[in-house]
Amino acid sequence: MKPIYLDYGATSPVRPEALEAMLPFFSQAYGNSGSIHDFGQQSREAIETARKQVAQAIGASAAREIIFTSSGTESNNLALIGAARKRKAFGNHIVTSSVEHPSVLEACRFLEREGFEVTYVPVDSNGLVKLDQLKQALTDRTILVSVMAANNEVGTLQPIRDIGQLLKDSPILFHTDAVQYFGKVPFSVIELGVDLLSLGSHKVYGPKGAGALFIKKGVRIEPLLHGGGQERGLRASTLNTPAIVGFGAACQLISQEVADEQARLTALRDHCWRRIQSEIGDVDLNGHPSDRLPNNLNLSFHGVEGQAILLELNRKQIYVSSGSACSAGKHAASHVLLAMGKSLDTAFQSLRITFGKDTTLELIDRFVDELKEVMHYLRSLSPQEH
After folding, report:
1. 328 pLDDT exceeds 60?
2. Are strands 283-286 and 296-301 parallel, antiparallel or unpaired?
3. Cβ pair 386, 375 in contact under 8 A
4. Which residues have a Cβ under 8 Å from the Cβ of 137 and sit 6 or more positions away?
5. Which residues contact 100 (CB under 8 A, 6 or more apart)?
6. Taking CA atoms, which of 70, 118, 245, 369 is between 20 and 30 Å from 82?
7. Which residues 6+ apart lie within 8 Å of 234 measured at CB?
């Protein structure tokens, strides 16, 4: 039987069109994009084409607003640390949420060690940041707000447009981590009202090793890497031409498909959830019931640890997650679920199921059938819980 991959929240396969676009830049058109000769300029032109593809995919005003990085994590670090350092003369206060990706939370903790103050706004039981609480957190020393567009673990969609409106006429910069959001929900950076937005390639069927940071025209940040003048002096280092080209191709394709894919994935997600509810039971949905990513189900199965379910499914060549990919290997409760007020038991009992372009109704039904067997077996080991 064909393996069932339901961990698209961790990574996705490189789509054939992106791979095809990349291949020449490994061994044929391998010139350094910083070289002024024709061979180098061939790579430069390919990178600039990719820059336009990414810009168009997120509705940026100009390709120049896109800076290429190595990952969503680097983009988040560059946005937060770069913006905070650049604006420290105007204040030292940053506002973020308690459920951000570790690359945002750890960047904030790093900035705290540099003397910045950070307010971690709490979320409600659905993982949602409340606009009034965020507003109350702002002070005359606030220089940056960073709230993710969609949570990587529970899939809750945050009110980014509302936050953008709130900050519209203020000098406070607004950053959002859109790594999980991009390709799942249609949007434009202008509509969202953000100054900085992070993207990652491998979540949208592009290669690993590429990411991007949207920097709105007129916004200034400090670089993290110092050296050559690549990426307008904001990200020194020789550009990863093949990965960037593949990222650009993937962005162009997914932006054309996102509306149809959103509807398709939502239908698959809801079908899966209905079957699990009715046929397995003793399970809770984590995250907002409706304002959530179309491809995300985060579930807590009463009485059974998520890691045990994951390992049993793995034996059947079914691949899911018991938390975010960045937390894999750490047997620790999800900081997101704990911030939502879930108990330690509920947090340990969670399983993240994420769908993608190769997920079909047939695969979902096979998955639920196998999950039923796994849950029957695991729950039989501790019948006192039920």
Report:
1. no
2. antiparallel
3. no
4. 95, 119, 121
5. 108, 146, 147, 148, 177
6. 245
7. 67, 78, 82, 215, 221, 223
Beta bridge partners of 120: 96
> Which of 335, 49, 291, 293 has its CA nearest to residue 183?
293
- To the query of whether residue 326 is one of the catalytic residues in this protein, the response is yes
C-alpha 377: how far from its chain's center?
Answer: 34
Q: For 330-348, what is each residue's pLDDT tens digit?
A: 668 899 999 999 999 999 9
Helix orientation angle between 72-86 and 102-113, rounded to the nearest 10 degrees: 30
pLDDT for 330 equals 60
318-319 and 296-301: which strand pairing?
unpaired
Model confidence pLDDT, tens digit, residues 190-201:
999 999 999 999
Question: Quick one: pLDDT at residue 253?
Answer: 98
| Among 108, 251, 272, 326, the one annotated catalytic | 326
